[in-house]
Design brief:
- The complex is a heterodimer of chains A (about 120) and B (about 110).
- Chain A is about 0% helix and about 45% strand.
- Chain A is mostly beta strands.
- In chain A, β7 and β8 form a beta hairpin.
- Chain A has no helices and 11 strands.
- The radius of gyration of chain A is 14 Å and the shape is globular.
- In chain A, strands 2, 4, 5, 6, 9, 10 and 11 form a 7-stranded mixed β-sheet that branches. In chain A, strands 1-3-8-7 form a 4-stranded antiparallel β-sheet, with no helix packed on it.
- The relative contact order of chain B is 0.34.
- Classes of the chains: A mainly beta (about 120), B mainly beta (about 110).
């Protein structure tokens, strides 16, 4: 079974530039998550999709971050303009189901490492 | 905020059992406890989850106290490849995983 695919693996940009990350979840997984992981910390949820609808984006800095999941499959996460504090690994995860009673596991991609200079 | 507390780091000798504790004193009756681990430069990997009863799979065992306020993940025979950050997680209200800082386990030869 193919896992969660993410690209690019690494990206270096200067502050105020823009960047986009792409995620292809496991086939058939309805729920997709984007997490931000700053060095030395645990992953922090940015946004959660159920199919192509947003379930939770309360932690997404909407003045500079945006995400979409057109057609309920692939997703992109965009940052514009980037700040120094956006340097982090951006992790995409997917799961078969959604909701607090869903006991299904989350499958994570290897992440996209962003460095903002 | 994460609903769990874990020690920041632990050491374990190779071949010995690694016992990783977790406190989740505010857990509610229908919330599961999940364990994930993250090896350096990789995404988190699911290990095991449980509700009330102890659970075992090919990777680990999960022991949950009767009052469900704490649990212990057991790696029965730790290897160097088990060196990782281990996260104990209780899901958020939307069913999403809220990570804390986890426990950095170092398995030493």
């Amino acid at each position: 079974e193919a896992g969660v695919a993410q690209s690019p693996r690494y990206k270096i940009i200067e502050k105020r530039q823009s960047v986009a990350f792409w995620c292809n979840p496991i086939s058939g997984h309805a729920t997709l998550y984007w997490y931000q992981q700053i060095l030395g910390q645990g992953p922090k949820l940015l946004i959660q999709f159920q199919n192509n609808g947003v379930v939770d984006d309360s932690q997404l800095p909407k003045d500079r971050f945006s995400a979409e999941r057109l057609k309920g499959v692939d997703s992109t996460l965009k940052i514009q303009p980037a700040k120094l504090e956006d340097s982090a690994v951006y992790l995409c995860a997917s799961s078969l189901k959604q909701g607090p009673l869903n006991t299904g596991e989350l499958f994570f991609g290897e992440g996209s490492r962003l460095t903002v200079l | 905020d994460a609903k769990t507390t874990q020690p920041p780091s632990m050491d374990c000798a190779e071949g010995r059992a690694a016992n990783l504790p977790c406190n989740h004193s505010t857990i509610s009756g229908n919330e599961y406890v999940y364990w994930y681990r993250q090896i350096h430069s990789q995404g988190p990997q699911y290990i095991i989850h449980g509700l009330k009863n102890n659970e075992t799979n090919e990777m680990a065992s999960l022991i949950i106290t009767e009052d469900r306020k704490s649990s212990t993940l057991i790696l029965p025979h730790a290897t160097l490849r088990d060196t990782a950050v281990y996260y104990c997680i209780v899901k958020g209200s939307q069913g999403n995983l809220i990570f804390g800082k986890g426990t950095k386990l170092s398995v030493k030869p």
